[in-house]
């Protein structure tokens, strides 16, 4: 295929309710969408960077700039065999995994449409439905948190993950575990603690948690290994893992017993597949993390989660948990058993609501391989 044109769009969507983590609260979401055109068809990817550099160093604006100035010029007009060629073309560019993933996932979508295959089959996935968990933001009171957990357990979600930070952790967790003694329960700190908090974090062992996600620094493995040696609760690394080399290092040094895979954070489907394959061979569970994606990113997560290494419920939940109206149809729905049926039609398995996307667009650039068609700004 020859990459003929790439469209960048920024859309604005409002969450149904604010979502609080240890590094801030979000309700209005700026989302980058990328559409790649080749051979008369197109594929879509979603940039998952947020507005500020608080999860990792990338933001929606740095992603846009990297795509426009460095990434798109390396692929535009190029003849490629398929999406596995994209990482090699982008290899000279260090980091910026979320920007790379926006393009790489779009090419995977295009490739699956061209081959007439569901994306999950093109990736080597085999599951026909995936188990789902849900991530709950920090709440102002324990009663509010209990009410939210009750709602999601009743909806069938197979794992409940609570965001935590100092002062909003052990007391909340004890009450949740008392009220819901049998649920799969995990926590996510988003780097809110330090190794000096080890004695405090040891208290979490009494709660029978599935895992404790990224309690220490976002780029740390050494202190996570030291902490894991002191506590029984399995540690899961998220922000620290950007590729399969990081995953191997973390597992071999004992920094974690579980790995969270996010498409944006690891640069796309090809690297996500390598990580899950390594972890499966090492006996380390992986699961799909979420970045409050709109429907395109959510559909890519579903396809990724059908691969054999994804054995724990991920953060792929229903569209209606986040949005009044999504940009795909049908919207993602979760069964009463806490699963999502994997769509079987070619591509993402969902129709892209392009008219809805155009209505939400606040910024647009079109980059063409044809010399007479320079970038068009709208």
Give a brief outline of the structure:
The chain is α/β, with parallel strands linked by helices and 378 residues long.
Structural summary, described in words:
Helix content is 33%, strand content 22%. It has 13 helices and 16 strands. α5 packs across α6 (170-179) and α9 packs parallel to α11 (269-282). The two termini are 27 Å apart. 50% of the residues are buried.
Keywords:
378 residues; alpha/beta; Enolase-like, domain 1; TIM Barrel; 2 domains; seven-stranded parallel beta sheet; five-stranded antiparallel beta sheet; 16 strands; 33% helix; globular; disordered C terminus
The count of domains is: 2
Walk across the major sheet and give the strand order.
Answer: 5-6-7-8-9-10-11
Level of helix content?
25-40%
In the CATH scheme, the class of the largest domain would be Alpha Beta
Reported for the largest beta sheet, the result is: 7 strands, parallel
Which residue ranges are poorly predicted, with pLDDT under 50 across at least 5 consecutive positions?
A: 372-378
Give the CATH topology of the largest domain: TIM Barrel
**CATH arch. level architecture of the largest domain:** Alpha-Beta Barrel
């Amino acid at each position: 295929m020859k990459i003929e044109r790439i469209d960048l769009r920024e859309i604005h969507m409002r969450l149904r309710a604010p979502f609080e983590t240890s590094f801030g609260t979000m309700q209005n979401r700026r989302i980058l969408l990328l559409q790649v055109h080749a051979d008369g068809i197109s594929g879509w990817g979603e940039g998952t960077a947020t507005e500020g550099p608080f999860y990792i160093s990338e933001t929606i604006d740095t992603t846009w700039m990297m795509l426009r100035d460095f990434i798109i010029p390396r692929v535009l007009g190029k003849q490629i065999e398929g999406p596995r060629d994209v990482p090699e073309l982008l290899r000279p560019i260090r980091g910026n995994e979320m920007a790379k993933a926006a393009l790489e996932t779009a090419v995977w979508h295009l490739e699956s449409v061209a081959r007439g295959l569901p994306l999950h089959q093109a990736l080597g996935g085999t599951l026909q439905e995936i188990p789902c968990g849900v991530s709950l933001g920090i709440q102002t009171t324990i009663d509010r948190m209990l009410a939210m957990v009750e709602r999601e357990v009743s909806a069938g979600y197979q794992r409940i993950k609570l965001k935590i930070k100092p002062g909003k952790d052990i007391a909340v967790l004890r009450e949740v575990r008392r009220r819901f003694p049998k649920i799969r329960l995990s926590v996510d700190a988003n780097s809110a603690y330090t190794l000096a908090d080890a004695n405090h974090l040891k208290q979490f062992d009494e709660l029978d948690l599935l895992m404790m996600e990224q309690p220490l620094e976002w780029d740390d493995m050494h202190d996570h290994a030291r902490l894991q040696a002191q506590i029984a609760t399995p540690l899961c690394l998220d922000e620290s893992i950007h590729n399969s080399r990081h995953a191997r290092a973390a597992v071999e040094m004992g920094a974690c017993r579980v790995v969270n895979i996010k498409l944006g954070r690891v640069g796309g489907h090809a690297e996500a597949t390598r990580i899950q394959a390594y972890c499966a061979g090492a006996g380390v569970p992986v699961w799909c993390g979420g970045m409050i994606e709109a429907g395109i990113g959510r559909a890519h997560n579903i396809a990724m989660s059908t691969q054999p290494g994804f054995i724990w419920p991920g953060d792929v939940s229903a569209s209606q948990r986040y949005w009044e109206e999504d940009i795909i149809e049908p919207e993602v729905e979760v069964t009463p058993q806490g699963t999502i049926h994997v769509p079987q039609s070619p591509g993402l398995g969902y129709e892209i609501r392009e008219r809805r996307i155009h209505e939400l667009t606040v910024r647009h650039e079109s980059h063409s391989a044809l010399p007479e068609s320079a970038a068009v700004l709208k």
